[in-house]
Every structure is written in structure tokens, then in C-alpha cells.
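Example 5.3 — Schlafen group 3-like DNA/RNA helicase domain-containing protein
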Amino acid sequence: MLENTATTKLAPETKLSAQQQALKQRVLQFCTQQLTTPQTGLFVIEGAAGTGKSVVLNSLMNSLQQARNDAASPFYQTNNYLLVNHPEMLKTYKQIAADQPNLRKKDFMKPTPFINQMTKHATHADIALVDEAHLLLTKSDRYNRFNQENQLTEICKHSRVVILVFDSHQVLKMKSYWDQTKLAALLAERPHEIFHLTQQFRVCAQPATQQWLTALGTQGQLLPRPTDPSFDLRIFADANQMYQQLRQRDHEYGLSRLVATADFPYKLNDQTYYVTAPGFRLPWDKNMDPNITWAERPETLNEVGSIYTIQGFDLNYVGVILGPSVTYDATTNRLKLLPDKYQDHEAFKRRADLTAQQALQVKQQIILNSINVLLQRGRYGLYLYATDPQLRAQLLAL
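Solution (predicted C-alpha cells):
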């Protein structure tokens, strides 16, 4: 089992695949061209979870920051930033920057501080790289001190070139609601290119297993369970038995963690909140370390992680608890999603630009997206438990 930490996976010296290398060269060519024109150019990197989007982005950032010191380079003295609206990912990028001669921690930021800083000083970036762009806000948010309407639009106003990583199946909140139509409208106003990464680097499984995971996580479809000696896919009738097996995998291979859909109460205060099932009770992730990501801290084996602590990261083995909002529709053989039972109320804050029917559909999509994020974390295995009896029985029967 290879060492599998967030920093080693994203480090600039990580060898890129042929497809990733081709993408990197296309992005650099696009940047070179767009820096000579007055209009902001947009390059979109699309790809499902685990296709190596962040690896390419950090490799690009390292090359750009190295080139900014080369008087013969078109990127000489350029002012470049990498932005990510995800505290755990930002933590990882800054950890990497501390060990790299070409990278500076201050060039890695969350989008709102970047926008506010550029606005205050009436300045701009030459190239802004945006990881997890599907987490960018598409409405104002006082809590995050973002007073405009769309973070990507604001980033474009303050950058000559924007490179962004996007996956519509990883949108997790109403206030960052994106779809392909929204993105296409924004792209139509600017010079742009789109590149779709297809090779799966995280889930070490046969195509049938990858299809099973994708069908469940993006369509809510329950396909027959494939037989795959290369990937340990198990359905459990008991949450505690699943947890004990996961502890064993962590003892054997490391980086094995339990995660759950946001179906169990949680508030940001000093209290401890629990994920529960018959015969099972563990606390939600709580005490965030400012320097070490959640999955890499040994004590978090005794907690349950969420989409917010695990999105963007690899595990060796993942155990997923599907909570009460995830049920089963026997007539369609698909997941039936119940937004009223979803406990992440912040994710569902109302938007004035959506009708009630549209809002319901977006809420259901957000729950499905959260399932997709959780299912795609494990490199070598996925253990699955559903609290809904009908769904659990159907999964066990696959």
C-alpha cells in the first residue's frame, strides 16, 4: 500500500499522466496567448471526482511561479494566485507551499479575501487558478463577507486569465448552486477553452465497479453489484460491524475513515453531536487542526467525517453511512431523496431566483451530489450502510 497523504498526492513533483501533461501544456499556451489580450480568458478543467484535477492545478501553479522569475518567460514577474473555497484543501496547499522554493503561502487564498483584497487595492492578478470552482458562491453571503452576486464573475473582473476546476456533481449548497447552463452563460461572454479529464486515478477498480459508483452517485441508480477482486465493495446490515471492519483496514493499511451524509444534527458550538444507528454511536468531526487535514490525524478514526472535511481527499478505504434523507423508490429502482430530513440547513438557504419546484430539485441534487462525493473517496474499498430499512435491504440484495 503506497503512502497516501494529501500533500504527497498534490505535490508538484507528482508525475503527471500523458493526458494530464497534455492538459498542462494547453493551459500554459492559453495563458501565454491571453496575457497579450485585454479580455479575461477562461480555461475550464472538467472531470469527475478522482480524475486528478487538483494535481494538474498545483503542478501548473508551481510552473507559473517558477517561470515568474525567468526573464525569458512570458510569465516573467506575473502576479498569480491559487484560490479554493474549501478550508481543508487550502490547508493542504499551504502545507505544500511551505516546502517548495517557488511557492509562497500568501499566493494561496480563499476567493472572498482575494476579491476583497483586489477590490480594496484596485489591482488584479495575472493568472488566477481556482480549485473546486463548483464551491464558488453564486449569491451574496454576509457570513462569508461576500457582498456581490457571483464569485467567479468577480474573480474574472480582477484577473487577466482564470483557470478553473469544475464538476457539477460536486455542488453542495444552494448559495453555490452551479449547473452547466449557468457556467455556459458565463463562458459565452469571454474567450474560453474546456478540457475534460477522463482517467480515474483514485478508485483502483475495474470499469464495472466505477460505473456502479457513478450510477449510484450521479443518477441514484442501483445497478447489480459487480464482482471485482481489485476493489473491496461491501454492503453492511449493521453500522457497527462496518465500523469494526474499517478499523481493521486502518490498522492494516492506514487512512481508512468513516463518513456520513449530513442527516444527523450538528451545530457549530462547544457541544458534541453524534451520528447514530442501531448499536452504533460516534461523534461528528469536531476539532479542526489548523495545520493537519482531518483524515491524516490518527484520532479521527474515532469520528465520522462529513463532505466538508473529506471533499477533494483520498482515503485507502472509506465507510459511508447513508442517513434518513436517503431512501429507496421501488418503482424506479433508484434512490428517493427527502430534503426535509437533511440536517445541513445551511446548504438549503433559500434563493429568490428559484421557484419552489426548482428549489426542491436543486435540494435533491445537492443530497445526491453529497452522496457522490462520499462514495468516491476510497482508493481500494468502499463499505456502505443505509439507515433506511428498505434501501438497506435492496443494497444487500444487489
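Remark. The chain has two domains: 6-196, 207-397.
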